[in-house]
Amino acid sequence: MNIALVLGAALAVLCVVLVALPFLREPDPVSDELDELTPERRRRLALAEGRDRALAALKELEADHRAGRVNDEDYRASIGPLRREAAEALRALDQPEAVAETQEKG
Fold first, then answer.
1. Which contacts qualify for 91-97: CB closer than 8 Å, 24 or more apart?
2. What string of H, E and C letters represents the secondary structure of the chain?
């Protein structure tokens, strides 16, 4: 009876190993080179980076104002341009050609 148990366990381990082998191997990449960005993708990337910078600056300004590190006058002088910059980047990212490009990818 012990031999049957050992053989069954060995067979189970062998089956698991055989099934797992394709998942354990690393696939061979077609190429190590990254795709070149199109001018439109570069523009969108620049817009997204601008949006992210503006939103991060807004968040930091809000935190500094709440913590008392930025006075009300400086806050009011800084908040408008940052909001405009973020809004312009968001508006540019929402243009129809940007939506069409995203749908082509999906």
1. 92/47, 93/44, 93/47, 93/48, 93/51, 97/40
2. CHHHHHHHHHHHHHHHHHHHHHHHCCCCCCCCCCCCCCHHHHHHHHHHHHHHHHHHHHHHHHHHHHHCCCCHHHHHHHHHHHHHHHHHHHHHHCCHHHHHHHHHHC
User: Is 90 within 8 Å of 51 (Cβ atoms)?
Assistant: yes
Q: For the segment 2-24, what is each residue's pLDDT rounded down to a tens digit?
A: 888 899 999 999 999 999 888 88
Give the span between the Cα atoms of 69 and 47, in whole angstroms.
30
Query: By the 8 A CB rule, do 71 and 80 touch?
Result: no
Instruction: Look up the pTM and report it.
Output: 0.56
Distance of CA 37 to the CA centre of its chain: 17
59, two tokens: 């968040």
